[in-house]
Design goal:
alpha/beta; TIM Barrel; 8-stranded parallel sheet; 16% strand; binds N-carbamoyl-L-aspartate; binds zinc ion
């Protein structure tokens, strides 16, 4: 049995870092294990322009621990008023990497998101032209669509029309949660890819709902039935270049999650690599691990694979759940994968 594994340093293609003290407390966990991350723009006051992104990037770098050279890759939050020329120049200057679509009302801080997709077509035209990735929160928000069907309905009513209209647009279907999503990505061409989170690889909706309501397993898109989790595991462990890691680590104060109207989001970055390595071991797919963690995403984004390596080691004892993060205002609860995990990152 494999007990050590060296792979190029992973990247996280979907990460929420927040700002202020939260940023300061969560960033070291990412820097420890990841060389780069796509930084989500859904701050309470969203990152809409290239100027906003440059300011946020500076705040991130100011909070980066000294001994790390982690690179934040900035994104813009798409609105119906996004200026295509700001997007073009930000991308061409290397100041922004991608634009993120939040359907209005779909998730945390998405009020400024898009209601009418046709309004963003001029931006998508420019993005298609310059090869800039379009990152999609793939859920419809119609109140008559069941929350467990939101992703599947998004594919049929939104994604397929966008893909037809912009055949060369680079699209990342973010935090995939369904077999429908996996099948869609597999049926489309190489310009359609998807990120998968660690939590959606290990939990189904029972984690959230059986034996009492468990707010720390509530995230958006919500975890679905077991058959969907199995499809995600198969996609991630297959080595197919269209699937790569996006942790969607989304810290909220424990008090904000343990509430009558709890926030969506799971803080998982402290044990993400360990959990994923265990999933791959369980599937006898450890040789594919570096594709999912370190190669596929870089390939899609047109970036070099990281030269630095990390070493993973299988310990004899099951790892403990990471400690909660302590802030002045309260704590952030770390993800408990509810399974035995033996792999740890050395150093
Ligand atoms: C994210 C957050 O809290 O910002 N929450 C989540 O459940 N994933 C937003 C998002 O990615 O949907
Ligand atoms: Zn997210």
């Amino acid at each position: 049995m494999l007990t050590t594994l060296n792979i190029p340093m992973p990247d996280d293609w979907h990460l929420h870092l927040r700002s202020g003290e939260m940023l300061n407390k969560v960033l070291p966990y990412t820097c420890q294990h990841f060389a780069r991350a796509i930084i989500m723009p859904n701050l309470p006051s969203p990152v809409i322009t290239t100027a906003d992104a440059k300011k946020y990037r500076t705040e991130i770098l100011e909070n980066r621990p000294d001994n790390h050279d982690f690179t934040p890759l900035m994104t813009l939050y798409m609105t119906e008023n996004t200026d295509p020329e700001d997007v073009r120049s930000g991308f061409l200057k290397g100041e922004v990497t991608a634009v993120k679509l939040y359907p209005a009302g779909a998730t945390t801080n998405s009020d400024a998101g898009v209601k009418d997709l046709e309004k963003i077509y001029p931006v998508l035209e420019v993005m298609e032209q310059i090869g800039m990735p379009f990152l999609v929160h793939g859920e419809v928000v119609d109140k008559d669509v069941d929350i467990f069907d939101r992703e599947a309905v998004f594919i049929d009513t939104k994604l397929i029309p966008i893909r037809q209209r912009f055949p060369n647009l680079k699209i990342v279907f973010e935090h995939l949660t369904t077999k429908d999503g996996v099948d869609y990505v597999l049926s489309s061409h190489k310009n359609t890819t998807a990120t998968i989170t660690p939590h959606h690889l290990v939990i189904n909706r029972n984690a959230m709902l059986v034996g009492g309501i468990k707010p720390h397993y509530y995230c958006l898109p919500v975890a679905k039935r077991e058959l969907h989790r199995l499809a995600l595991v198969q996609a991630a462990t297959s080595g197919d270049p269209r699937f790569f890691l996006g942790t969607d680590s989304a810290p909220h104060l424990t008090t904000a999650k343990e509430s009558a109207c709890g926030c969506a989001g799971i803080f998982n970055v402290a044990n993400a690599i360990s959990v994923i390595a265990q999933v791959f071991e369980n599937e006898h797919a450890l040789p594919q691990l570096e594709k999912f963690l370190s190669l596929n995403g870089a390939g899609f984004y047109g970036l070099e694979v990281n030269k630095k390596q990390i070493e993973l080691e299988r310990s004899k004892q099951c790892l403990t759940i990471p400690k909660n993060i302590v802030l002045a205002e309260g704590e952030v609860t770390a993800f408990d994968p509810m399974m035995d995990v033996y792999w740890k990152v050395k150093g």
